[in-house]
Amino acid sequence: MKVAVLDINGKDTGRKADLSQDVFAIEPNNHAVYLDVKQYLANQRQGTHKAKERAEISGSTRKIKKQKGTGTARAGSIKSGVFKGGGRMFGPRPRNYSFKLNKNVKRLARKSALSIKAGEQSIVVLEDFNFDTVKTKNFTAILKALNLENKKSLFVLGASNNNVYLSSRNLQGSEVVTSSELNTYKILNANQVVLLEGALEGIETNLSK
């Protein structure tokens, strides 16, 4: 699968990048994609929610009315959840939402997501670049050259580059990750996936195992 390599000005360099059929052109597995996205979102949850139950409420322990003869239901504690100011019945408790997912399923999901984007022609291959200093203006110029100013974009680097990462951090619609940080949710959440040449080998190595 041949894709033109662009420079940071959005111009064709005349070179072609060869995208692996085993990574960018498979039959997408929707269930694997669903599971991987579900796991990613579950892992973002802190799970610190908590409501006070009747044992944790401050209040009198006196029986509030006699057992029989009132014509209403019996009641023994003002801290019961049926009364105003009482404890919460079956309220949320702190818990861990994360769950285990097989590595092969995660790998299949990421290949499926990349294949979906490739099928939508939403993948761009860009030549490797670097910034001498941290400047958001430099990164904005690249977005403008690629017509990505008002779109969600995901830039995938071959290796960590602090200047490029920090230059993009203030831009809400753009995200920069390395090939080892790539995940299904981020791929699908972006309107355009921009792969730097140096990231292709790492992506294919990680997903072809």
TrEMBL record:
Superkingdom of source: Bacteria
Chain spans, region Disordered: 46-77
Its biological purpose: One of the primary rRNA binding proteins, this protein initially binds near the 5'-end of the 23S rRNA. It is important during the early stages of 50S assembly. It makes multiple contacts with different domains of the 23S rRNA in the assembled 50S subunit and ribosome.
Keyword Ribonucleoprotein found: yes
Keyword annotations from UniProtKB, A to Z: Ribonucleoprotein, Ribosomal protein, RNA-binding, rRNA-binding
GO cellular component: ribonucleoprotein complex; ribosome
Protein family: Belongs to the universal ribosomal protein uL4 family.
GO terms assigned for molecular function: rRNA binding; structural constituent of ribosome
Protein name: Large ribosomal subunit protein uL4
Native organism: Mariniflexile litorale
